[in-house]
Prior knowledge:
Blueprint: E1 3-7, E2 10-12, E3 18-25, E4 34-39, E5 46-51, E6 57-59, E7 67-72, E8 77-82, E9 91-99, E10 102-105, E11 109-113
Parallel strand pairs: 2-11
Antiparallel strand pairs: 1-3, 3-8, 4-5, 4-9, 5-6, 7-8, 9-10, 9-11
Amino acid sequence: QVQLVESGGGLVQPGGSLRLSCAASGFTFSSYAMSWYRQAPGNERELVASISWISATNYADSVKGRFTISRDNAKNTVYLQMNSLKPEDTAVYYCKLPYYGMNYWGKGTLVTVSS
């Protein structure tokens, strides 16, 4: 069965960096697009970045130039490198897989940006 497991969240000061990972299993990872979403308290879940099966990328305007999404098909893992973090980046970060008409989500990893 499809499983997505996020890791790498934590507490970081403004201006700092984190790298999130999403380990995937249960499907042919290299053939599918993957995305990172985030949800802050009281807000709707929003798209942060996506990467196609051929590694074409797309970013929300709020993170362009600061975040980088990448994938390692040998490790079945998608990454989100987050630099120049701001307090407004505080959220639970989720990876998502659209697969056969369904959306699969991980349980998320909490990122807190605070001094």
